[in-house]
Amino acid sequence: MKFGRTYQIQVKPPNGPAITIVSPITAIIEVDRHIMSSANSVSVTFYNLSQSTRSAIYKDKYILNQYWQIVIMAGYQNSMHEMFRGNIYEAYSYKEGSEWITKIEAFDGQYAMTNAFVTESLSSNLSKMEIVTRLFAAMPTVSIGSLGSPAQGQAARGQALAGQAYDLLRAQVGDTVFIDGEICHILANDEVIFGPIFQVDQGNLFTTPRRRDTFLEVDAIFSPEIKAGYLLDLESNEPRYNGRYKVFGFKHNVTISGAIGGDAVTTLSLCCGTKAFFQVAA
Questions:
Q1: Residue 182 shares a structural domain with residue 215
Q2: Helix, strand and coil in the chain, % to nearest 5
Q3: pTM, full prediction
Q4: Residue ending a domain, choose from 160, 187, 214
Q5: Alpha-carbon gap, residue 160 to 148, rounded angstroms
Q6: Tell me: the pLDDT tens digits for 52-108?
Q7: Shortest CA distance to 106 belongs to which of 124, 92, 120?
Q8: Any alpha helices (H) in the chain, and if so which ranges?
Q9: Predicted local confidence at residue 2, as pLDDT
Q10: Which of 4, 83, 216, 235 suits 117 as a labelling partner, its CA being 20 to 30 A distant?
């Protein structure tokens, strides 16, 4: 059973020491991760951090060239998983009544999307993989993950690359590219990341699955181990929906606190697919 929610959040400013915040300080964490080409996001609300910690965690949203990394680990008792990794967009504190509230908004890969630029002429007949690799090299804070079939084959001859590296990457492979955990993947609809196959059974579900076009929406007990782009086996009280799916995305909404209860829900968006999925190794 899943008892004893816990977390550890580390903030790394561009200058100065890392700041670590742990349970039982109250934290409300809302994560949105998916395999779309837009940036994943997280919103964190802390209650009653110390004055020194509040002062150290301040980031102006209009300063886009400072990399403030945030890494969120969460789980149950002694078992935690990486729930989010990215760059803080904005952070500030304010007092409301008798409580101090600290807000953090962050995006995964946003720093690389905003600050990586490329200007290069490609006269030779390069493969897509060679061009993709060059664009990756220009993107700070992001590493290469699984590169599936959209990154294969020959590219158009005599290209001129000029602009933000991530936009140029999308021009090469379309919306098959996404960043999750500061790792960039390129996957076709029938491709998944090689790795663990996650399990969700009826004992972990709040409701029966809901079919939405080609997707299945499932409300489960907070499950920080799940990752986007991987396979998941579902077992519910609706046998027609049981089977293996690709994790298109999910949202975590969890309160972790030594003083109050609160939500602990993971809402999954699962891709039904029309044929078998192929695992792609990094």
A1: no
A2: 15, 50, 35
A3: 0.94
A4: 187
A5: 24
A6: 999 999 999 999 999 999 999 999 987 999 999 999 999 999 999 999 999 999 999
A7: 92
A8: 51-56, 110-115, 128-137, 165-173
A9: 66
A10: 83
